[in-house]
Amino acid sequence: MKLRFAFVLWLALLFGHAAVAEESATKGDNYNKAERQKQNEQTQELISQSKNGKEVSEQTLESSPILNVEPTASAAIGTVIVSSQELPGIALDSAGISDRGITLGSNMWQNTPHGLAIRLVSGLPTDIESPSIRNLAIRLLLTAAEQPRKDSSMELGDQLLIDQRLVKLWNMGQWQQYGNLVATMPGNVVAGNLAKNYALLQLILGQTKGGCERVDKFSRQDNPDRFWQKAQIYCAMVSGKQDVAKLMHDLWQEKYENDDPILHKLLVAAESNARDVKVKAKDLSTLHWLIVNDADLIVNTDGVDTIDVAAQMLLLSNDNILWQKKSALAEKLALHGVIDTNKLTGIYSQLESNGKAGKALLRKEDSKISDAQRRGSNWLYIHAIADPVQRATAINDSYEDLDAIQERRLLALAHADWLKSLIPSTDYIWFAPTAGRLLILLGEPKLARAWFEIATSDESTAAKAWPYIRVLHLSDGQSKILQEKWIARTILSAPRKLEEYLGMLALHLNALGESDNIWTRDTLPKGFSADMLKLTTHKAATPGASILLQQAAQANSRAESVAYVIYMLGQNNLADIAAQNVAESVESLNHLGLQEEARNLVLESLVASGL
C-alpha distances in angstroms, 153 versus 32, 48, 90, 545? Predict the structure, then answer.
């Protein structure tokens, strides 16, 4: 998985291999008695493995005071930290973050057995592509809540839910949130691999004082392992003790042949200029990571500090990274929302225009030009067009030439400011459907709807607009204002390429109880393909999770319901997931009072359908 591979590379480059938990996927099913027994046996095997150091979450936690380290604030999830002692059920499993508007509520595990909660969390996927589903997973793992009720028939020995929560956050690359959760735990449990991960986390985030204090403490214990020894070298170097660091490094090389190349670079930088040790150490490690690991770039939704530093370095490192490399990395950062559109176009502007038309470049007529260079040249070409009608025409042509959804997103990002500033008008009616779809990709549903409504005033563009208008009204909770004739007109006027979109639309309407008497096999027009019928009637790919989701939602077990939604939608790209799964998830989230999450999922599924 991308996140795990990226983390392992980080670990190798910085300090050697600290133990990281291996995943044990648990599939959603009916949890009948036989299955429970089978899973219990598997879990006991994992516990046995963990005693040999193979699992972070199952380490025997020794008594060790936690350092008073101020967690880095998170913009995406929240920053309100509470102690587990503030909750009615005082238990380690209750530790977490509390914020009524962000987390899932202190009673989110009501009616869920403790053993089932552990199984659900331990099986959550960690390489979740969907931002909406990833955000739900992080909130599930972070929320401070009363511990699930005990159930002797489902207990899993001495396992703790907090262990699984920490493992998942770490393996998702959510190091900042991992640190926030550790900071809420009682002060006598941070030891073993948990201590290593926490120390590594602090050093990665630039919290060298707290991280090096932890390194010093554990390095003084008997028989310190290689992780603590290597971390000692790094801490000596960043604290300005170059002689000590050099001596320790020489001793290390004599003992171990496989030296870390990045550590060697850091020490060279420390020797060359002692005054700039910290700056050079951070820059070198970040730069090396970007160049080596750009194929599987970790970008956390909460904006880890090192990513922000990387984004700034991309704009400044003209001599260190070739333009092709820099532009490709900038595009990845922009797609994940880490850098804004101005920084992306700033990278594009560093490319000298070769005079070729942008449209020709997008058609890949010149195989010698990289994809990033082709997109950059296309931006330069369009950006130089002063006339708004001609610019809209060029953007429209570029959109039609692009098939991949990520390339269309990059097109939207590159021209975001101009698209948002363009006032919807019938003067651009031919451009209206494209403008609406690009604005959806930019997360601007209200502006998008204005353009789609413009498009409905002309028959040549109306067919492209009706499905999006209907779904956008659904996302705003205003679907009642639309009449059945709108839907009928959509069906009758839809070209063949919109059949899949209409199938998705039918399921969303069905899920929200809007069209029980409209969307049936008997009333669907004959022009709809067999594939679309299969899509609209297809049951969940994971029927066990689907059934359990409905049951959990009816029982108002919020955490359990959210977990099943993550199981159903988080293991693949939304474009590859049965639409029925999305519809059931939207319905359940609405039932649980998570209307905003349901709206986000509707919009994201629309984007995933290909626009």
Answer: 12, 20, 23, 21
Q: How far is the C-alpha of 417 from the C-alpha of 318, rounded, in Å?
A: 25
Confidence of residue 496 (pLDDT cuts 50, 70, 90): very low
What pLDDT, on the 0 to 100 scale, is given for residue 505? 47
Task: Tell me the C-alpha to C-alpha distance, in Å, between residue 151 and each of 281, 457, 496.
Answer: 51, 61, 53
Report field, pTM of the whole predicted structure over 0.85: no
CA distances from 69 to 115, 209, 301, 303 (A): 32, 9, 22, 19
| Structure confidence by residue, pLDDT tens digits, 183-241 | 777 655 556 666 777 777 677 666 778 888 888 887 777 556 777 777 777 787 777 77
d(CA 380, CA 352): 9
Task: Please report, for the chain, the start and end positions of each structural domain, with discontinuous segments joined by +.
Answer: 2-235, 322-420
Q: Which residues contact 318 (CB under 8 A, 6 or more apart)?
A: 350
For the segment 368-386, what is each residue's pLDDT rounded down to a tens digit? Answer: 667 777 888 888 889 889 9
φ/ψ of 9, rounded to 5, equals: -65, -40
Average pLDDT over residues 232-251: 73
Q: Enter the tokens of residue 470.
A: 């209907």
Q: Taking a C-beta distance cutoff of 8 angstroms, is the pair 495, 508 a contact?
A: no
C-alpha closest to that of 136 among 164, 100, 102: 102
CA pseudo-torsion sign 364, 370, 372, 374: negative
Using pLDDT thresholds of 50, 70 and 90, give the confidence band for residue 422: very high
Question: Which residues, 6+ apart, have CB-to-CB distance to 224 below 8 Å?
Answer: 218
Q: Which of 455, 452, 432, 477 is nearest to 602 (CA)?
A: 477
Question: What is the predicted pLDDT for the residue at 312?
Answer: 54
Contact 439, 419 (CB under 8 A): yes
Q: What is the 3-state secondary structure (H, E, C) of 171-239?
A: HCCCHHHHHHHHHCCCCCCCCHHHHHHHHHHHHHCCCHHHHHHHHHHHHCCCCCCHHHHHHHHHHHHHC
